[in-house]
Design brief:
5% of the residues lie in helices and 39% in strands. It is mostly beta strands. The strands form 2 sheets. Strands 1, 3, 4, 6, 11, 12, 13 and 15 form an 8-stranded antiparallel β-sheet that branches. Strands 2-5-14-7-8-9-10 form a 7-stranded antiparallel β-sheet, with no helix packed on it.
Length: 220
């Protein structure tokens, strides 16, 4: 019984396939409002099939906006999980579009950073690591409130980790991909299959979800 709870992925707070079939729809159990797609282009996805991702074009008017009616507010622990094809610096998934909340961003074409920001926005802790550009990367950023561990994962393998202590997270805002007002860096690249969890997933759970949005695979 204990093993079951460790290995089976828990219900997601949201799952946005971000493909040309589901568009901005949340297919997770809570059916959050659909993401608003603005000037993005459908492209091949990580499954190799057409319309499997969206291309953010690297301009201020190319972005995806995620409303937050409460389910995206994980408050303590979090997992942000997605497929990413980076081509530039810029915001990948950023809570509080007009300010600083928890976020995942490329700080250069080859360096990804997760920022864990406290609810009062007085504390920011960062972890960063190099990844490959212009290829698909299966990425997760996790934070476990109980242990204080913040971890970046690539293909379900931890690539950097830091104990940042206990932080109540600034996730009580909408989120945005591609741009953030006041930031001149607009992300260019593709994004697909974005999951949000209110727990820090482990390696097995992350690996189990790798093909979740692949149309040639059975859903888990």
């Amino acid at each position: 019984l204990v093993s079951f709870f460790i290995t089976v992925p828990p219900p997601a707070m949201a799952i946005y396939p971000l493909n040309g079939i589901e568009r901005g729809k949340d297919i997770g159990p809570f059916k959050n409002p659909s993401a608003k797609l603005v000037n993005v282009v459908s492209k091949n996805g990580p499954d190799g099939l057409p319309a499997g991702s969206y291309q953010l074009q690297g301009f201020a008017n190319s972005f995806i906006y995620f409303p937050n009616t409460g389910r995206l507010d994980t408050q303590r622990s979090i997992t942000i999980l997605l497929w990413l094809w980076p081509e530039s610096a810029g915001p990948i998934f950023h809570y509080m579009p007009r300010g600083i909340g928890v976020n995942l961003r490329m700080i250069s074409r080859k360096v990804i950073r997760a920022e864990f920001v406290s609810r009062d926005r007085k504390i920011t802790r960062r972890i960063s690591r190099r990844i490959r550009s212009r290829v698909w990367n299966y990425i997760a950023a996790t934070y476990d409130y109980h242990t204080g561990l913040a971890t970046m994962w690539l293909d379900s393998i931890p690539i950097t980790q830091r104990n940042i202590g206990r932080v109540r997270l600034a996730t009580n805002y909408p989120a945005i991909s591609g741009r953030r007002p006041g930031d001149p860096r607009h992300f260019r690249g593709r994004i697909s299959c974005l999951h949000i969890y209110n727990l820090a997933l482990n390696s097995y759970q992350i690996r189990k979800l790798k093909r979740f949005c692949f149309r040639a695979s059975k859903l888990i």
